[in-house]
# Entry
Amino acid sequence: MIPTVCRSHEVCVRGGLTDERRSFREKLRLQAAERFRQGDENTVIVRDLRVSVRSVQRWRKTWSGRAPRALASKGPASLPLLSDELFAVLEREPAKGTVAHG
# Structure
């Protein structure tokens, strides 16, 4: 089911992350980059940041010798396919019931 409201720590109606969630995740990646620079092991970073081992492995590979900004957010993955007006129409349709839709 598609959520009708964007809240922090949830996916938006348009299928991407909210700005707040994207910012939160970027902050985690930048904290991990600082920990990489300090020489911390992946297992310590996983425990302290409460993220998956696979995420830390991916982040370390991306960071590998580059500036921490390599882990910065690059913005939304894609633009919405529907306009706000069409989303409004889509949200009203279920209220019409099954008979109205054949």
Notes: Residues 94 and 101 are 9 Å apart (CA to CA).
